[in-house]
UniProtKB/TrEMBL annotation:
It comes from Salinivibrio costicola subsp. alcaliphilus. It is a multi-pass membrane protein. This is Magnesium transporter. Keywords: Magnesium, Membrane, Transmembrane, Transmembrane helix, Transport. Its main location: membrane. It is found in: Membrane. Belongs to the SLC41A transporter family. The chain crosses the membrane at residues 283-303, 309-336, 357-379, 385-410, 422-445. Residues 32-135 form the Magnesium transporter MgtE intracellular domain.
Amino acid sequence: MQTSERQEVIDDLLSKVDQGSLDVVQDIEQAHSLDSLALLLEALPLTDRVGFWEQLSSSLQLPVLAEMRDDASEAIIRAVDDDQLHALFANLDADTLLELQDVLTEPLLEEALGRMDSEQKQRYASAQQYADNQVGHWCDHQPLVVPAKTKINVVLRWLRRVMPKYCDHVFVVDSRGFWVGAVPIHQLFGADGRLKISELVRDQFPSLNARDDIYASADKVANSEEIALPVLDEGGLLIGRFDLGTAYEMQAERAEAQIMASAGLDEDEDLFSPVMKSARNRALWLGINLMTAFLASWFIGLFEATLQQVVALAVLMPVVASMGGIAGSQTLTLIVRGLALGQISKANLKPLLTKEFKVGLFNGILWAVVIGVIAGYWFDSWGLGAVIGSAIVANIISAALAGIFIPVLLNKLKIDPALSGSVILTTVTDIVGFVAFLGLGTLFLL
């Protein structure tokens, strides 16, 4: 669904809600996919959201809930009565339970597990052996798998009955379930049906370790030129597969998480989260920002006498801070993306620093001339123009270098640079800019 179309649906739906009518639900659920329905629900205030969700077809309620962000789905679970929840989780499968386990209460989780058959319980237990940032936790446990001794004509008969999405290979294992290789499905149709499938195996087929990072695995699948890759444990036992559709979902999730983290927010935060919860989530980074602001103010206070005598410096201080901030954030964004994609290493860090230094020097001189001329003409002081121009050059260069060093250092310390990099960078550029500007003003204008 396009963004504009979704906005129209939300407007229409809310108008129906205001009129006390939700008879449009069936039309909407037939016209839109699960992820679109989840986005629609997340865009509704809580009361309307619960009412809309309750009128969805019973077969869609659970899948839509699993598609929603944690905060949004948790709000619905807390709002509906116990009888509805007990009925809802009566036939929960392992994959859906994995999606919802973080938002379910312990009694609901135990009840859902108790109602599962042995196969679903085993699948859930297998996933729980791995952390939720590992591919083994999220892989599909129903790939097309056949023993190596199986005849090709038997495999072809089986394929006519079973064909999951994102599947162009049959995975081949030995009698104990250990990985042997893969066979392209198209090769089976022209082969002698009496042959064993092991005679067509691609033994160099790429694979994933179950303990690999989920986002690194998503990148590997996306770059592999394969529709799905097998997921193996440390001993080579096939436990599932990771397909291209899931890989793209994970890449989109990572991108969203980085965008939200740059503002100090969780990607699961709901548009209509309770006020106190949203305030609590954001208060930490506001507090950190306040401390860094006081630090910058302290440096400004060191030049109080200068500011009292040359008022123009106080007027122009925001210009210096702003130019350094935007220059640093441009470099920071570039480096955070490079780190996320694994493009930055010790080998290319020095040429990258050289390049960003030159970019900072060029832009610093360019905008120093422009700002220096404007300031000199404005305050009728070419000395002031020269001071602010010099400060601009120093701040833009330092901002560009800080935009590299800060995320690289945070990454080495296992701290997400998308989450805290911008706060540290702003502090650095403010302090460098103010000290350079006010220091030069003290030396040359007093």
